[in-house]
Amino acid sequence: MKPPLTIALYPGDGIGKDVTAAAFEVVQAVETHTEGLAVEGTWLDWGCDYYKSHGRVAPVDFLEQLRPFDAVFLGAVGWPEQLPDHVTLEPLIQMRQSFDLYACVRPARTFPGVPTPLKDDRALDLIVLRENSEGEYVNAGGCFHPGAPEEAALQTALHTRKGVTRILEYGFILAKGRRKKITLITKSNAQRYGYVLWEELFYAMAEEHPEVEVDRIHIDAATLHMVRDPGRFDVIVGSNLFGDILSDLSGAITGSLGLNPSANLNPGASVPSLFEPVHGSAPDIAGKGIANPTGAILSAADMLRFLGYPEPAERVASAVEKAYTDGCRTPDVGGTLSTEAFTLEVVRRLS
Ligand code: NAD
Ligand code: IPM
Ligand code: MN
User: Fold this and answer.
1) CATH code for the domain of 230
2) pLDDT, tens digit (0-9, with 9 covering 90-100), for 99-115
């Protein structure tokens, strides 16, 4: 028997707590159906509540505490009314950057019976692949004369040949395993250094993958096409910020942000990978027990697959699919089930 998978469970704030509990309940249930799978979860109480007693949202050595785990599962962090976002979100960004989790994979698809806001309600199935280690998220810049009338803030993005090349490679490989189309999102018409580098590397790589159809769209037009003709997308690859924006939009067009999973990966490296739903802590519905746990549950399935357990991962994904086919839905997608009730419906369909 293989050693148990060690998972750090970091529910965080708001609905992060509900959806992490839901996802881990499903993991524990699928464990009982899978010979050879053992999962050991370690719960972490970091976040806004931790801040009240410790004056910080996570321990100073939180990265070292996380490093030995096979994976980290995060619910969501942030609660702007309690603490400024740049304080609560710091550990999330640090995990991604310090463990060099450069590939952020965010699949978005429609589910049976889930209404979408689009006129054309054909099924959608796309992936937003987001560069996750540099770009607009590097902490490069500064504030001069803070508070003074001449205050100036400088925020610099960093796009490296190595960083862009590896995410594009990941994208072409993903596309090859799917409908063989990749769309690069840029803004090279206005940002002439960083995104021009992206385009040069993209077109050079395209020549090595003639079987993959390539497309390039600026971020502004991309938001339009996502709403007007989302079927044209298979794998969408872009910088950290563009990937962030398009992942929320892909949630909206598939029916709810609560549906979308996310994996933060550094394939082959001996660091824990990070799995989390795309959505945030949703203070507007926190404490009501109505958060949609689908994105979190599917993130847990992706975690099992990435850690070498494709069979239970598939079992979880098909249980979710069956739950939707049978009409089980939380309020965000037009149903009445609570987080717990929906989770139970998924668990029931695992066997
Ligand atoms: P949000 O994603 O929390 O919520 C946006 C909207 O979507 C809200 O109306 C919310 O109710 C709805 N929603 C989100 N997830 C849902 C779910 N599972 N089920 C049903 N409805 C859902 O974004 P926000 O309100 O802009 O941000 C709230 C906080 O979360 C902020 O502090 C923000 O910085 C943080 N945030 C954290 C993460 C993360 O931890 N990965 C991601 C995004 C935002
Ligand atoms: C996400 C979130 C984060 C991001 C925030 C919370 C820093 O929006 O994971 O999509 O921008 O990456
Ligand atoms: Mn986001």
Assistant:
1) 3.40.718.10
2) 999 999 999 999 999 99
